[in-house]
Design goal:
Alpha/beta knot, 5 helices, alpha/beta, elongated
């Protein structure tokens, strides 16, 4: 499952601190419901600055903490990144004393042939076989043992069926996001108070490769600036709302909870 939301979600927050906190909340919700990718787009109320800020913060949230100093350059947008709550996915919780079979993410520092030298954080370096990644790349290492000097040995691997977080993409418009999704075999579903209520699994179309849920911003709903024909369905996941408006992060939580249950 993938999600698309406008960067204007940050526009109602005053100052970088509050924008950072909101991005952290969004990252947590996406992680809890195992979202595979988030597409941040520009709606009529989005500034280029908020687009880049949300992109930076969500990418930071997905970067393993033990590798952030090597993978994430210092920049003003991340000044308050420490306010973001940890997402606590397995790749962010490496073992302190790695044993054969453990998976750890590392940063490639040297590459030669099908071997590379990767920095794993506190465990130090590992010599990795079957690794063709370039220096500076993030790789997942499966520990196989240690050499006589105590250095870790491993092979390049992947997290397989273990949820490893979401990827972050940006787009200039929701139409661009929807077009990409359809070409990849995803059904495109909009969320709106004008949509149909989700009462059964069949109420949510799913493409051969999955589903993209699209959310509106804090000032305008999706149908205020896009045509209903852009979507395979328009759903309302907060029927009879008590508040005049439902904030994007609230709609995100409610929708993912319902869709997760409907598709399980």
């Amino acid at each position: 499952m993938e999600v698309a939301l406008p960067a204007s979600v940050l526009s109602v927050e005053a100052g970088l601190q509050w924008k950072t906190v909101k991005a952290g909340v969004i990252a947590r919700v996406l992680t809890v419901y195992r979202v595979d990718a988030v597409h941040v787009f520009m709606d009529p109320d989005t500034s280029e600055r908020d687009l880049r800020l949300l992109e930076d913060l969500l990418r930071y949230a997905m970067t393993p903490p033990h590798l952030r100093r090597r993978l994430v350059p210092l920049k003003p947008s991340l000044r308050y990144a420490g306010l973001m709550p940890p997402v606590q996915i397995p790749r962010h919780l490496p073992p302190r004393d790695p044993r054969p079979g453990d998976l750890i993410d590392g940063v490639v520092e040297e590459a030669r042939g099908d071997r590379c030298l990767a920095w794993l954080g506190s465990p130090g370096y590992a010599e990795v076989r079957g690794c063709r990644a370039r220096p500076g790349s993030l790789v997942t290492v499966k520990v196989t043992g240690r050499d006589p000097s105590g250095r870790l040995l491993g092979v390049q691997s992947s997290w397989g069926d273990v949820y490893a977080g979401f990827t972050v993409h940006t787009a200039g418009s929701v139409e661009e996001v929807a077009g990409r999704a359809r070409r990849r075999g995803l059904a495109v579903v909009a969320t709106s108070r004008l949509g149909d209520c989700v009462k059964a699994p069949g109420d949510v179309p799913v493409g051969p490769r999955g589903l993209l849920l699209v959310f509106g911003g804090p000032r305008r709903g999706l149908l205020d600036y896009t045509d209903k024909s852009l979507y395979d369905a328009v759903v309302n996941t907060v029927p009879g709302q008590g508040s005049l408006t439902v904030r994007t992060e609230e709609a995100l939580q409610a929708t993912l909870a319902i869709i997760n249950l409907a598709l399980t």
